[in-house]
Design brief:
It is built from four helices and 24 strands. By secondary structure, it is mostly beta strands. The protein has two domains: 131 residues, Jelly Rolls (Sandwich), CATH 2.60.120; 129 residues, Jelly Rolls, CATH 2.60.120.10. The longest helix has 18 residues. The radius of gyration is 24 Å and the shape is globular. The relative contact order is 0.15.
């Protein structure tokens, strides 16, 4: 006599506890940042030709779970041809530090000329930035490092579409990557009635509109190219800085990222500081090392050094290991100070001054 098999109903999965999920998610993010990469070596980053340009992609969404400070998009570009591809961004907020060569950028039909040591800014606009970079000295290389910080760009509905492929691109044209006719929707062109003030705003809402008006006026006049010659060297507690973007500067087209260069004389060092982390350092020239929480990390020209975000902050100091040649790095940091405070969650503390100060 055959036994009739009884069908056993599969057990329903236990409902996920959202609180526990959040705890584990935060713990995992903290672990990944604590254990993430601090130095990305240029020689380990492949040079690739894309439909837009030729260069190295140091950081982007594909690497954010591998580094100590996620969110940065960093690319080193080379332009030996007369021009690179042409594309457009909704939003804006891209920063370019020029490393070599003489060139220009045409952005929304306006021309911006630049040279080594200059910084170019793509402003945040209600429409788009249609731009293309040009080498003004064909036969001589020119190039830059481009810096974006995604947590500030996502709220702007930031998106990129191609307009024209690089002349060096040999791949096929992918139509879905190119700018459609409705890339900037009609909603972006909607404008309300004029709101202006002769005296103090009557309401707190009007105070926001006053701030909007002031911002628009500042952006109308703001610098989109900051020339190195206009940025004097400052001797401060951390060493020799050249500031390009600082919270005190209101005349520049992008203020969401700090940007400065730091030079360390031969055999010298920076100051020693405790900081929440999140900074990136692109090594422009020289070789040396940084000590982060007692651990040494060596770097050389074209490497990227990342100051990790850690509970309690990171204590760090930079050293030039070359007795004959100065080291120089371009440093970027999100401008959290206006919204989260200068201390952040660890306290900004100076532990030791640079030997080059005062």
């Amino acid at each position: 006599m055959e036994r009739e098999l009884e069908r056993v109903r599969e057990r329903e999965p236990e409902p996920q506890d959202p609180y526990e999920f959040n705890l584990r998610w935060k713990m995992e993010k903290t672990r990944k940042m604590r254990e993430g990469k601090v130095v990305i070596k240029a020689k380990e980053v492949p040079l690739i030709q894309t439909r837009h340009s030729f260069g190295r992609w140091y950081l982007g969404p594909a690497q954010w779970d591998q580094v100590g400070a996620p969110g940065w998009i960093v690319k080193r570009s080379f332009l030996e041809n007369i021009r690179r591809g042409k594309h457009t961004h909704t939003g804006g907020g891209v920063v370019f530090y020029i490393l070599e060569g003489q060139g220009c950028t045409v952005n929304n039909d306006g021309r911006m000329d630049w040279g080594p040591g200059d910084v170019e800014l793509l402003p945040i606009t209600p429409f788009e930035n249609v731009h293309q970079h040009f080498n003004l000295e064909p036969g001589r290389p020119c190039g830059w490092v481009s810096i974006r910080f995604w947590p500030f760009m996502e709220p702007l509905a930031y998106e990129t579409r191609q307009v024209e492929d690089s002349p060096d691109w040999k791949g096929s044209r992918s139509e879905e990557l190119f700018r459609p006719a409705d890339f900037v929707p009609d909603a972006a062109k909607v404008r309300g009635y004029d709101i202006s003030f002769e005296g103090p705003p009557a309401t707190l809402l009007d105070d926001i509109f006053r701030r909007r008006n002031e911002w628009r006026e500042r952006m109308r006049k703001a610098k989109q190219v900051i020339q190195e010659k206009d940025c004097p060297v400052e001797r401060n507690r951390m060493g020799l800085y050249r500031w390009y973007i600082h919270p005190s500067f209101t005349d520049v087209a992008c203020r969401h990222i700090f940007l400065w260069t730091q030079q360390i004389p031969p055999g010298s060092c920076s100051g020693r500081q405790k900081h929440q982390g999140g900074r990136i350092h692109f090594i422009i020239q020289g070789k040396g090392y940084s000590v982060l929480d007692g651990v040494r990390y060596d770097w050389e020209e074209e490497d990227l050094l990342i100051l990790p975000i850690k509970v309690g902050g990171t204590i760090f100091q930079h050293f030039n290991a070359d007795p004959d040649r100065p080291a120089k790095m371009a440093v970027a940091e999100p401008n959290w100070y206006d919204i989260l405070g200068v201390d952040m969650a660890c306290g900004l503390e100076q532990m030791e001054d640079s030997p080059d100060y005062p």
